[in-house]
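Why run this: before we spend reagent on co-expression, it is cheaper to look at a predicted model of the complex and decide which construct boundaries make sense. The entries below are exactly what would go into the expression plan.
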Amino acid sequence: MTIVQEQPQITAELAKTITTQHVVHAYLFTGSNQAQVQRVGIWFMQALFCPHAKEGYPCLQCNFCQRIQNNDFPDVLTLATDKKSLGVDDIREAKRELEQTSVEASGRILLIKQAEKLTTSAANSLLKFLEDPVGKVTALLLTKSVIAVLPTIQSRVQILSLADSVDTNLQVDLQEKGYSDNDLTIIQQAHLEDELMANIAGDKFKQLKQVAQTWVQQLAHNPWQAFIAVSTTILPAVENRLQQQLLLSLMEWYFSQQLNQAVDDHVKLQWAKQITMAFLHAKQLWTANVSLQNSLEQLALQATNLSKRG
Amino acid sequence: MAYQALYRVWRPQTFEDVTGQSAITQTLKNAVATDQVSHAYLFTGSRGTGKTSCAKILAKAVNCPQQQAGEPCNQCAICQAINAGSLNDVLEIDAASNNGVEQIRDIRDKVKYAPTQAEYKVYIIDEVHMLSTGAFNALLKTLEEPPAKVIFILATTEPQKIPATIISRTQRFDFRRIPTSDLIARMEFILKEKELDYDVKGVQLIAQAAQGGMRDALSMLDQALALDLQKLTLANALQVTGALDEQQLVAYFQAVFIKDAAKSLQNLHDIMNSGRSALRFCDSVIEVARDLLLTKSDPNLIDAAQSLVLPETLMQLQEQVTKQQLYTIITQVSQTQQDLKNADRPLIYLEVLTVQLVEAMQPAPAVEGTDTSADLQVKELQQKITSLQEQVTALQNDEVKETKPMASTTSKKVKPAPKNKAVHVDQVKINQILQQATRKALNQVQDCWPDLMSMLNVTQKAVMKVSKPVAASADGVIVAFDYAVWFERVMSNQEMMTMLKTNLDRLLQNDADVILVAAEDWPKIRQKFLQNHEMPIAAPDDPQEKQATSNLVEQAQNLFGTDLVEVKHD
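The model came back. Tokens follow.
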């Protein structure tokens, strides 16, 4: 299934701006599924440069389209990082390069993946560039959350958000890796697509899902047991930070389920709310580099306090 | 890519064009017209309020040879060159990428050269808050006294990051958010210029969502127009701003107000599934809560605040909430808004928020008295109090049992009495000591007391700090303790007692025992001794003796002067 079929609305809008020549100099694409956002980004670049485009839709066959797809096109400058942040030096270098005129196409494109990773100074040094780029440059920012982007950047770009849709490519891919249909539904509902970009095998996913589910239940019924389970079952199950991320996202999903199921019982709802808030706090701690063990153990201790009071 | 965004095309070119900042533009115009332009300006204000535009216009106005009443002509070669960004004497510097000391030094070096084409050399330093501290300080001297014909214009969205020393050297202008009515007027003007049809409600909606930023408004307008080139429709405006459908919002609020958690969560999911952004959702909830609050306070306020008129159905809801509840709603939503910044998936935060809001709607605990958290706390506290009371009575009973035998009979039964015993034993010895006690001995002991203290270790010293010798004879020293607790403790500490004795004996070179008493008991003990022995003691003697010596001393002092006479107590 192509990206046009998956995201008919946004691609139609973009195609229209191309045919009516209303393409502005800066866009921000946002959506919960990073892989999909990137594919829209690539599709838009192909649409801009493809010499055989029909009504704004690229042919996807020609030399240009192929090379853009393979990230091998000289007039597209991609900024992406595996590190935690994109710094001001990367931006400076990019700006210097973009001052040169295009080699093959009619203009140049700056593609920034995961724009939420831009540091404050990097984002600030983009401001002037985004407002008045020198020459024919189109900036394309991709991010999973608009809020994480500087407000002064937001006001300089056109923000397009992707509708939620099934990422069939990912599903096929995951099925091959041995994910069950049941798992796929959870993945789709909980928006776990981003976490799964990092090759996690089907069995591992199943294991993590099991661990997350039992732990969330334990927390409700026997918090002390849950405290111990952190070091006995959770820690052995996760191998790296990506898996930790997946585990926490799964837990988040189960907490959310718990909250939604408790709506009819006032006391239960109260508890579900408090434990979910505690969990969100623990997750924030984890994001701020507190170890998984510490954040979860603290959560378990809080749960014991909560159940004592209840 | 020939198309230019609306906000770039419609960037104001004269002071007259700048919307919503009449006070500032008038001041600048007057300054230019009367030739009183300062050498340094600081423009601050939130995004899209016209800081950079004003800076550029000012640069043109001071340099334009044909300026009229402070406005640039935009016709002459210089104005055109500045518009194109090609005039050497107007430098626009992006402080965010050139934020080091090196770059500022570069400016400082070049500032000395006179302008080449224009009359003034203008430095526009945009995003100036990103300069490093070193860079700011390097700029200070230049900013205070630049060479003639140089103007600095600093622009920033975050004035709180600018050092006070910079602010005090500049003329500061605060650009306020552009009122919604001005945004609407400007957008309508642009739409008319472009000869496009528009829906008034759509324009209003965009203006509302722009929150006082012209650039935001024009960006959104641009985007909405890209969807439909002929007409700005309300539907497109809704889509672009991500604003909530009124009906959805009303349904959500109704569910919250009737405290139906299940239904409000359902409504929340509906809203989020229709592709609304979490942030907009929070904004809308706060706006509605604010409007309800205003209507409750005074219905006329709403018009003054220029908000979009709430639908009637929502207005009727105001009966169901108290002001206090609305305050709680607003605080909790804005708290969640903060949290959302770090969230990967906003939905769970909004779910928690919804449950919180439903809870906030619960009436005060006194009325229903079921399970609200405050109620729980009260219960808990009550329980605690009763258990404490029980403990206290239990303790009292115990005490009565304990004290009875002590008070009535001195039987051997319950003896918590190292104290009693010690005092009893002491009495004989004390009497012995007191019989032979002399002032001299006491003075001796008092003299060497500090030495004794210094022989003890820190903890012992701390204990003995509350004690002092009160009486002494050749074979004994009585030491009184200020607090009975310490006294008992030292008494029971055999090691310390021997240590005190041996050390004291070494200092005094005799074989004196150390007897401890509590200071509060001391007068009683002495009284007892005096009654028993009926003998003249040292104390009454002392004054006479003292008087005699003091007479002698006085005479001696008269003879030799105070400096030479050393009074020695024997």
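Residues 365-371, 405-423 of chain B have pLDDT under 50 and may be disordered. Residues 411-564 of chain B form a domain with the GMP Synthetase; Chain A, domain 3 fold (CATH 3.30.300.180). Bring this page to Monday's planning discussion.
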